[in-house]
Design goal:
Layout (H helix, E strand, L loop, with lengths): L13 H18 L1 E5 H20 L2 H10 L3 H14 L8 E8 L6 E7 L4 H34 L1
Antiparallel strand pairs: 1-3, 2-3
Length: about 150
């Protein structure tokens, strides 16, 4: 029984696991959206949320902690300049995990992990609005072509 054993090994030794998680956290904060396996996404989520919480503190010590963990200084700056202010009034829960599909090669369950408000919802709304505009435009075109067909019949 696995009582009081936290964390997943993810089939890697400790140094490889830590490096992989640092890479995933850095990539997620850079792109604000990531497709990976479900267990990796579940392991990355608390680490990303800790980085954002440190970004909300915005002290010298917090900056040094974030810079020490992340692999890219530009991403560390992004945490403090754009990501943390976006979540300033939110008490946690900065990311979401959505189950995506089973991977073709090995059947592993993949998931999308993204930051809340990363623009994905806005893009979906815009796509839906465009689709409705195109549908209404095509309906109008169909109505116009029907009118022309009736005129041709006369």
């Amino acid at each position: 029984m696995r009582h009081k054993i936290a964390g997943r090994k993810l089939g890697r030794n400790p140094s490889h696991r830590r490096a992989m998680l640092r890479n995933l956290v850095t990539s997620l904060l850079r792109h604000e959206r990531l497709v990976t396996t479900l267990p990796k996404a579940k392991e990355v989520r608390p680490l990303v949320e800790k980085m954002i919480t440190l970004g909300k503190r915005d002290t010298l010590h917090a900056r040094r902690q974030v810079k020490a963990y992340l692999l890219n200084d530009d991403v560390a700056r992004k945490v403090f300049s754009t990501i943390a202010p976006r979540f300033s009034d939110r008490p946690g829960g900065y990311s979401r995990i959505v189950r995506y599909r089973n991977r073709v090669g090995d059947g592993a369950e993949e998931a999308i992990i993204e930051l809340i408000g990363s623009g994905l919802e806005e893009r979906r709304r815009e796509a839906a609005a465009e689709a409705s505009k195109e549908k209404s435009a095509s309906d109008e075109d169909a109505a116009v072509s029907d009118d022309r067909a009736e005129d041709d019949d006369k």
